[in-house]
Sequence to fold (147 residues):
Amino acid sequence: MNILGHGVDLVETSRIARVCERHGQRFLDRILTPAEQRHARQFADAVTFISGRWAAKEAILKVIGTGWRGKISWTDMEILPDKLGQPHVRLSGETERLAKQLGIERVLVSITHTRDHAFSSALGVGGGDRHNSAEKGVHESPNEPPR
Fold:
């Protein structure tokens, strides 16, 4: 696998909390998929989860070099944990199209947060044997859900 792009983002959780308070469900529907919203409800402090997903999605957009513009939707990126908690990214729509155009076959993210900040790093990878293995039914990670 080759690293084809890298992006990072840091966000203040208080900023996300204010937007959640001001716009409520409309904001959540705009930035989180229904599955991400269901997962967020499991946490006593959903704001840190939402902030982490915001940072991760911003980092992913930096990987593909576009930022948020054009036909890109926040819900083109879904980040859900595997059974051990490792976040896995699924791209769709315009974001998936742009990633494929760049040769990105998989996006890896790491997300961390404190009470005040959420940070994420994202890598766009492609051009290796793992992709061929996945096409043959071999999972790229023992924790990754089947495709």
About this structure: The chain has a mean pLDDT of 87. The chain has one domain: 2-135. The first helix runs from residue 13 to 31. The CA atoms of residues 42 and 102 lie 35 Å apart.
